UniProtKB/TrEMBL annotation:
GO terms for molecular function: aldehyde dehydrogenase (NAD+) activity. It comes from the Bacteria. Residues 7-225 form the NAD-dependent epimerase/dehydratase domain. GO terms for cellular component: cytoplasm. This is NAD-dependent epimerase/dehydratase. PANTHER family: NAD(P)-BINDING DOMAIN-CONTAINING PROTEIN-RELATED, PROTEIN YEEZ.
Length: 333
């Protein structure tokens, strides 16, 4: 079992899931982020959590955040239109981690570095051939980490996630559909919506990450985490409305509309490049991960939708009773 664990980029939804898993195991952990106020709001009530702020542009700050850490779980995010920062932030974090003697480094990755799938499903050893800028930046980020492992400076592993959803997860293709279904409105989706797709329920991720980091054989390579089965956006939205007792109401936007909206919205502009993920199914094979860990629990879609709808309804009710707020973030796939 790993010693001190630090969650870099802890305030995102994956970080919260990993923190919940560590808390359930009674294990102390460090949460690292730029904003102390945000970290205190999320983790301040947990006596197992140590709150540390960092400035990745300051090497001394990075080293201080990594000091005394055995395992670093890396979930540092960037704006969707700033993917050029991914390799830079990885390099700065690695430099600090290596200088402080961090032994294990777990990177939470995505399917972006694979590029268009050669096979369905995609195995762990599928070539990384990104044809998009974002995919190349993600691959470069991974290459830096795997090179550090090959050099023997630390042990590294990558866990690749599909798209995700869950209670409070706004960074999802499905977030606005959950809000629409819960409030009886029309869901807006980015089409096509009938292509096969997979999603992982975010609360399931944390226990998988902690199991992976505690397994010595996990290091030195990457691992796929698949969803609980192939589905589609339409099937997911149909189930949302079925559970609310309402008929499905939806509208879709195609690639052309994304380009038009991108003239005014940087998120939509950047999403055009990744539209292939909605037309070419990238379904992952996680046979090797399941063989490694023995058990990989995945919440069935219907149950995940039930829990996410319940949370969304409670959240909408709370918002309706609170003063109006502005500045909602864009959903990011």
């Amino acid at each position: 079992m790993a010693g001190k664990v630090a969650l870099f980029g802890a305030s995102g939804v994956i970080g919260q899931s990993v923190a919940n898993a560590l808390k359930a195991q009674g294990r102390a952990y460090r949460v690292v982020g730029r904003s102390r106020a945000s970290l205190e709001a999320q983790f301040g009530a947990d006596p197992l959590a140590e709150v540390v702020t960092w400035n990745p542009d300051d090497p001394a700050s990075v080293r201080a955040a990594a000091r005394g850490v055995d395992t670093l779980i890396y979930m540092v995010g960037v704006n969707y239109w700033q993917f050029h920062l991914h390799p830079t932030l990885m390099r700065k974090t690695l430099d600090g981690a290596i200088a402080e003697g961090v032994k294990h480094f777990v990177h939470i990755g995505s399917v972006y570095p694979y590029g268009p799938p050669r096979t369905t499903p995609v195995r762990d050893d599928h070539p990384r051939e990104p044809h998009t800028y974002k995919g190349r930046m993600r691959k470069e980020q991974e290459d830096l980490l795997l090179a550090a492992h090959a050099a023997g400076t630390l042990q590294a592993t990558v866990l690749r996630l599909p798209d995700f959803y869950g209670p409070g997860v706004e960074a999802s293709f499905l977030h606005r559909a959950f809000v629409a279904a819960a409030s009886g409105k029309r869901a807006q989706l980015i089409g096509p919506i009938d292509a096969l797709h997979e999603f992982i329920y975010v609360p399931d991720v944390g226990p998988i990450v902690t199991a992976l980091m505690d397994t010595p054989r996990a290091y030195g390579r990457s691992w796929n985490l698949a969803g609980p089965g192939a589905t589609s956006q339409r099937q997911m939205v149909d189930e949302m409305y079925r559970q609310t007792g309402r008929p499905t109401k939806l509208m879709t936007m195609g690639k052309g509309m994304l380009r038009l909206l991108g003239l005014f919205d940087p998120f939509m502009r950047e999403l055009v490049e990744m539209h292939y993920l909605l037309t070419t199914p990238v379904l992952m094979d996680d046979t090797e991960l399941r063989a490694l860990l023995g058990e990989v629990r995945k919440t069935p879609y219907a149950e995940g939708i039930r829990q996410t709808l319940a949370f969304t309804k409670q959240h909408l009710a709370a918002v309706s009773r609170a003063p109006a707020a502005t500045g909602r973030p864009h959903p990011v796939p």
